[in-house]
Amino acid sequence: MANIKSAKKRVKTNEKRRQRNVARHSDVKTAVKKVLTALQGGNAEEAKTLLRTAESKISRAEGKGLFKKNAASRKVSRLAKKVAAAFQKSSV
Question: Are 51 and 87 in contact, with CB atoms under 8 Å apart?
Fold first, then answer.
């Protein structure tokens, strides 16, 4: 444990931030998983609405510094691609 007052505060704030980041990361993973589960169930309409929430959570996490810009874009792009493919399949 740190001895200096500012170092003690740093330890506390770092832990708070870590907890927040873990929660955000978990939230994003859950949202992505919901989209993928809906796709596996063959529910393209539900997947489309869930995609919007997942995209929002990913963008918010990017803004908070959890993901880099390109990583967030890549995640959204891959999800959107899967949802679009499911829509093509369901409409044919």
Answer: no
Q: What is the DSSP string of 47-88?
A: HHHHHHHHHHHHHHHHHTTSS-HHHHHHHHHHHHHHHHHHHH
Parse the chain into domains and list their residue ranges.
48-92
Q: Which tokens hold the place of 62?
A: 């990017």
Q: Cα–Cα distance between 83 and 43 in angstroms, integer?
A: 10
pLDDT (mean) for 25-39 = 97
Confidence of residue 91 (pLDDT cuts 50, 70, 90): low
Cα torsion 89, 50, 76, 31: sign: negative
